[in-house]
From TrEMBL:
It holds the Pfam family T4P_PilY1. InterPro entries: B-propeller_PilY1 (IPR008707), EF_Hand_1_Ca_BS (IPR018247), Peptidase_S8_Ser-AS (IPR023828). The keyword Signal applies. Residues 1-28 form the signal peptide. Residues 588-920 form the PilY1 beta-propeller domain. It comes from Sulfuriferula nivalis. This is PilY1 beta-propeller domain-containing protein. The lineage of its organism: Bacteria, Pseudomonadati, Pseudomonadota, Betaproteobacteria, Nitrosomonadales. Keywords: Calcium, Hydrolase, Metal-binding, Protease, Serine protease, Signal. GO terms for biological process: proteolysis. GO terms for molecular function: metal ion binding; serine-type peptidase activity.
Length: 1098
């Protein structure tokens, strides 16, 4: 492609950047299309270690009241319930293990509620009090069980542990103060206290009787968490029941369940430990750290030491992870650097890593020294050869702690989270919030473990406020996300925070009332709401067809039932359905190969004389049209997201995917494609008016194309389904249509009609009731308004047993009058076809080259041994820089990457520049060969240099050039582009190595005229941010400008933004299979010749 006659940059950039579209050998039997992205086969599941802070204060409820671990209102039960929910939602999705605190000297103790610094005088009670806890005024009260009708008033009520049940105790100290002393810790305790006097025992009217204890009390974990070492003049206790208790800690963590695949066996192990903490009897019992014993809550909070134990566990070390800490036989399984810890605590560290005493400063709810130790321990955990990203959850923190940090931020837990690489801690005080917190964290973990698809950018001239859009997916649960990133004034991507995440937005949209989802009714040829019929046995003309109802009433195993309505609601996003696949993170499905298409205000420069109504009027009418981004998802829908907010405004369910929709609900779901094609959205004219029309295929999701009128987003609703859905064209309309991997072109024809043009795709002989009898590769030209076939151009190449398939075509307006004249497309057999559609009558359209009545390709791609090379990406058409008399250069690469066996193929693939000067090109013998001459390392980056063999277009024996890709298995699976007299493309090198993101590839840049080395710098090879004469590599004694740059994982096609970079440089955006977006600068463009329609409109 070139820059001549460019009508709208956004369209060029938004053409699909397929990560998994196509390399292999010559045409063979029907393709074995992969049902999953080929590059995910080498990924590993994320390792997640859940660390549960099971200290004694888990006996409390979120307010600090002692209720016992088994009480459903306890911190323990709330935390365990939320954790078990995560285990359920992420079974078979992640690797997971469970750690708690190491404990010692644990014994059964009697648990009581204990109001500290209490009062019996109602004059001291003020329920609206919001002051210090050290005050004669009390905010809370509880009935005095020894004196019905009277109350005990307090500000703090924490657990009290004793060796035996003692009933109610009413204790008095004349020397103890509250809360940090000073004062002697000595109490007289009685079994009964009546009246409202706060006087000392023995004083008239004091009301004490029956002395039961004379002595002191020791602070527990709950007390230390509140920085309480003295309990005040009046202390009361009320029996709750037996509990585990320890007043110390060895200072480390304890691994209860080593990390392993979270299958049903592992889930059972973790859930057994998360079961309700067993309550001992008064006769006592001994806890054993076996797999069937629930975790017990006892002792202090060794936070620092637990991080140290986790560090040693992940690194296979034993210093802080011996048998006393539950030492496992080995470190966690490899996760390709996706190791995470999720730590839930209800307090701050109150014991050192060696089990030593922590000293608190008066008035502080923590030890600054021990907090610093914890931060260091998290820093160490998140560093080294195996860093573990650490999430921190502060759950039901002590009130004193919360109050203190509300006025004295930041909370030390935030510092720990920052050290762990997660910015800030999460906070929760109840089950609902804790569930939401866990879901947010685990969704975030999956998002970091996922892979990415194509990218789209809002505009070519980037200013602050611009956006880039990227589809993502996670193969662990096949969830998806569609993310908008802001761009700064230099064009750099701001990765955090994101502008919006569509998955989050969609989860918040009610499946029934918050989404507009439409579909197509084949029997009437009209759009309808995607809703279950009022009477499914007799649907109305505006409801689902009977065949669609039957498909939804079929279980994933193929049996007929009556569950269709529930399945439809599930597909709409209803998460309450039971017996169906759990979607733990997002109702948005995986987005793999669908390239997003951004649509703002009409911006094409179409002539006002092109149609009866001037285009400028249409452009002015919709000048303020809200921005939309369209992308296909493998949840069965084409989605339309608001470009500013991320809200889904419209979704469309194509009818060809109905036969497989039931599989989305299967509890044993195996991935398959649904709406995986890349849409094209352009302006066209029909019915005496301009319209903005979306046309898309399904790629591996089915055999069909569909069109939608997306002119006015304010009209997006299910009510308008009949006008929004335009048509569908499937293999039921023409059996030669295969799986619809093409991205359509939208053009005006020379007969005056507007049309969608696409190739037939692959496997058109599949036995689905509409099998092709020929297996030929064909080109379809379909009316944009009606979807009716205008013309099918048959190459005649292919058979029923070895079906051929035509890849995405490129359409050329050769004479510049706004109508399509020529179409170029490659096929699986290596044929590059040229179709002539320049006549005003369709009967004259056909292959540009013929031998008698037999179509002949412009060129057949073969390697040096004569083996045909498949072409699965659209060609780029460029005016020959040598001059108009030398015709056009058809630039394209070869390779295939859609079959299950494709990653293992190692045949040589090639990038070609073929001359079309109204004559076919015979073979390689009339092409000039260029080669990769060296690979150089500069600042840790790999670069290629190219040969510079001359190409003399004036010679009758020269008709182009070629470059064989040097790495075994290297191939081209996406279209190239041209800029500043150079051709730019990416290559893919598949790999089956672990943690390889499926492979890697190269960004290649070569001279358009020769296919060889550039004579000027195009890439910032020295990394100084400027492209100038110093951007070279040294080969021998020569300074050479580079022609290729290594990319770390499988790349998409490069999307160009002219003038967006430094000093007017071009920015190239490349999405990679590891989820990153690479932004690479190029020197500015120059105009070199007429462009193709593919560039104008895509």
């Amino acid at each position: 492609m070139s820059n001549m006659n460019r009508q709208n940059f956004q369209y060029t950039l938004l053409a699909a950047a397929v990560l998994a579209v196509c390399n292999g050998s010559a045409i063979a039997a029907s393709l074995v299309l992969s049902p999953t992205p080929l590059f995910v086969t080498t990924t590993a599941k994320a390792n997640v270690l859940l660390i549960l802070g099971n200290s004694n204060n888990f006996d409390e409820d979120p307010t600090g009241l002692a209720v016992g671990s088994a009480n459903p209102a306890s911190k323990s039960e709330i935390a365990r319930t939320a954790a078990k929910s995560i285990v359920t939602n992420y079974t078979n999705i992640i690797n997971m293990g469970l750690m708690g605190y190491q404990q010692s000297s644990v014994s059964p103790q009697w648990l009581s509620q204990s109001p500290y610094d209490a009062s019996y005088n109602p004059a001291n009670y003020d329920p609206s009090y919001a002051g210090s806890r050290v005050s004669t005024t009390k905010k809370f009260r509880t009935p005095n069980l020894a004196d019905p009708g009277n109350y005990i008033y307090y500000n703090v009520n924490l657990p009290f542990y004793s060796s035996a049940a003692g009933g109610s105790w009413f204790c008095y100290s004349s020397t103890s103060t509250f809360d940090n002393g000073p004062g002697a810790n000595n109490y007289q305790c009685y079994s009964k206290k009546t009246g409202t006097s706060d006087a000392a025992p023995g004083t008239s009217g004091a009301g004490y009787s029956s002395l039961v204890y004379n002595g002191g009390f020791v602070p527990t974990d709950s007390d230390l968490a509140q920085n309480i070492s003295y309990f005040g003049t009046h202390v009361v206790s009320f029996d709750v029941g037996w509990a585990w208790f320890s007043n110390g800690s060895p200072g480390k963590g304890y691994l209860h369940v080593p990390i392993a695949n979270l299958d049903s066996t592992q889930s059972g192990k973790i859930n057994a430990k998360l079961a309700t903490s067993t309550i001992p009897t008064s006769s006592g019992s001994t806890w054993a750290g076996n797999s069937s014993s629930p975790m017990q809550n006892a002792g202090l909070s060794p936070i620092t030491g637990s991080f140290m134990t986790a560090k040693d566990y992940f690194n296979g070390a034993t210093t802080n992870f011996g048998t006393s800490q539950g030492g496992a036989a080995s470190a966690p399984p490899s996760s390709c650097n996706k190791d995470f810890a999720v730590f839930l605590t209800n307090g701050l560290p109150n014991v050192t890593s060696s089990g030593g005493t922590v000293t608190y400063a008066p008035g502080l709810p923590y030890s600054s020294a021990e907090v610093a130790n914890s931060v260091t321990a998290v820093t160490n955990l998140n560093s080294g050869t195996r860093p573990v990203k650490t999430y921190i959850i502060g759950f039901a923190l002590p009130q004193f702690t919360q109050d203190y940090f509300n006025t004295n931020p930041p909370n030390p837990l935030d510092s720990m989270a920052s050290a762990g690489g997660t910015s800030a801690a999460y906070y929760a005080n109840d089950l609902t919030t804790l569930n939401s917190t866990f879901n947010s964290i685990f969704s975030n973990i999956l998002a970091q473990s996922g892979s990415a698809g194509a990218v789209a950018v809002t505009s070519g001239s980037v200013q602050a406020g611009g956006k880039i859009y990227q589809g993502k997916f996670n193969s662990a649960d096949w969830s998806g996300d569609f993310i908008a990133y802001n761009l700064d004034s230099t064009g750099a991507v701001i990765t955090s925070p994101t502008a919006w995440n569509a998955a989050t937005q969609l989860n918040a949209q009610n499946y029934n009332t918050g989404r507009s989802i439409i579909t197509f009714k084949p029997s009437t040829g009209a759009g309808i709401p995607f809703r279950w019929p009022a009477n499914s046995s007799s649907p109305s003309p505006t409801e689902l067809d009977s065949s669609q109802i039957a498909a939804l009433n079929t279980s994933p195993t193929g049996t007929t039932d009556t569950n269709g309505a529930n399945r439809l609601n599930y597909i709409r996003g209803d998460t309450s359905q039971t017996g169906m696949r759990v979607r733990g993170t997002s109702v948005l499905g995986d987005i793999v190969d669908s390239g997003p298409f951004y649509v703002g205000a009409p911006a094409s420069n179409l002539s006002d004389t092109l149609e009866a109504a001037p285009y400028s009027s249409f452009r002015n009418t919709y000048a303020s049209r809200e921005a939309m981004v369209y992308v296909g998802g493998n949840d069965g829908m084409m989605h339309g997201f608001d470009g500013v907010t991320g809200n889904e405004k419209l979704a469309y369910v194509p009818s060809p995917v109905y036969k497989n929709l039931t599989q989305l609900t299967s509890t044993s779901y195996s991935h398959r494609y649904f709406v995986d094609g890349s849409p094209t959205v352009l302006d066209g004219f029909y019915n005496n008016a301009w319209h903005t029309v979306l046309v898309s295929g399904l790629a591996g999701g089915g055999q069909g194309y569909f069109a939608m009128d997306v002119t006015d987003p304010t009209l997006f609703s299910e009510t308008n389904a009949s006008t929004l859905a335009r048509w569908e064209f499937t293999d039921a309309n023409d059996a030669d249509l295969g799986y619809s991997f093409n991205q359509p072109s939208i053009v005006k024809l020379n007969n005056g009609r507007w049309a969608a043009i696409f190739g037939n795709g692959y496997n058109n002989t599949e036995a689905d009731g509409h099998a092709s009898t020929t297996g030929h590769a064909v080109l379809f030209i379909v009316d944009l308004e009606t979807g009716l076939l205008i013309k099918k151009l048959d190459t005649g190449y292919g058979t029923a047993t070895t079906p051929n398939g035509l890849a995405t075509p490129t359409v050329l307006d050769q004479d510049g009058n706004g109508t399509a004249d020529t179409v170029y497309a490659g096929d699986l057999a290596g044929n590059m076809w040229k179709f002539d559609i320049s006549a005003s009558t369709k009967s004259s359209w056909g292959s540009a080259y013929m031998t008698g009545t037999t179509p002949v390709p412009l060129f057949v791609a073969k390697d040096s041994g004569g083996t045909r090379q498949p072409i699965t990406a659209a060609p780029d058409i460029i005016a020959n820089p040598a001059g108009a008399s030398y015709g056009w250069i058809i630039a394209f690469g070869t390779g295939k990457y859609i079959e299950t066996g494709d990653p293992a193929t190692t045949s040589t693939q090639t990038f070609y520049g073929i001359q079309d000067n109204n004559a076919t090109v015979s073979d390689r013998s009339v092409l000039v060969q260029q080669t990769v001459t060296s690979t150089q390392t500069v600042n840790g980056n790999l670069f290629r240099t190219l040969s510079s063999n001359p190409v003399n277009w004036t010679l009758a024996t020269v008709h182009g050039w070629y470059l064989d890709l040097p790495t075994s298995g290297e191939r081209v699976i996406s279209e190239s582009t041209t800029n500043s007299k150079r051709v730019i493309f990416t290559t893919v090198i598949p790999s089956t190595a672990a943690c390889s993101s499926g492979g890697d590839g190269w960004l290649m840049e070569m001279d358009l005229s020769t296919g060889g080395a550039l004579t000027y710098p195009s890439l910032d090879s020295n990394g100084d941010g400027t492209i100038d004469s110093s951007d070279y590599v040294t080969v021998g004694t020569q300074h050479v400008y580079v022609g290729g740059m290594k990319l770390g994982s499988i790349p998409s096609a490069a999307r160009l933004q002219n003038g967006a970079g430094t000093n007017g440089n071009v920015l190239k955006r490349i999405s990679q299979s590891n989820g990153t977006i690479s932004t690479i600068q190029n020197s500015p463009p120059s105009k070199i010749g007429r462009t193709s329609w593919r560039e104008i409109f895509q």
